[in-house]
Amino acid sequence: MNGWILAATVELGGGGAAVLWGVTTGPTARRAVAQNLATSVVCPALLLLAQGYGRPSYLDLALLAAILGPVGTLVFARLLADEEERDRTGARGPTWAAAALCAAVVVALCVATGPSRALAKPVVIGALVITGNFVASRALSSGLRGVRGD
Question: What is the pLDDT of residues 29-55, one digit of tens each?
Fold first, then answer.
């Protein structure tokens, strides 16, 4: 086991516990925020595992999750818009923590990889995860015009 795999294991353990807690407790809006957090936890873990095992195909999985995860969260936000309770779950802390984690992983991969063509895909994946995380969290916690019927 090398440092990359150990970092992925620690990251999946901590992030997985937070996702599991969010999915199993609280109102439906918190569960949707936890689903968004799951994408933000899995993508950096796949980046770390790709580096640890030397398998660039894991980057393709991370790219797919980075694209489809926020889209799924926005679909949930649209479906939850008609609920009567309209509780706005605060997701500011998990959003910033997930963005910082993803940025740290991408920077570590950039340092390890060095300047090359292989550097482009992790940077794009990191940008997609961070942007998608902020957009989906905003849609769930404070509402976007047209998503929650505002």
Answer: 778 888 888 888 999 999 999 999 988
- Cα 31 to chain centroid, rounded: 14
Burial class of residue 92 (count of CB atoms within 10 Å of its CB; 0-12, 13-18, 19+): exposed
Q: State whether the Cα torsion 103-93-14-21 is positive or negative.
A: negative
Please give the biggest Cα pair distance in the chain: 52
- pTM equals 0.83
Angle at 85 between CA 83 and CA 86, to 5 degrees: 75
Strand ranges inside the chain, DSSP E = none
Domain boundaries, the chain: 3-141
Instruction: List all residues 6 or more positions away from 47 whose beta carbon is below 8 Å from its beta carbon.
Output: 58, 59, 62, 105, 106, 109, 122, 125, 126
pLDDT per residue over 92-140, tens digit each? 777 888 888 889 998 998 888 888 887 888 899 899 999 888 888 777 7
- Report residue 122 CA to chain centroid gap: 14
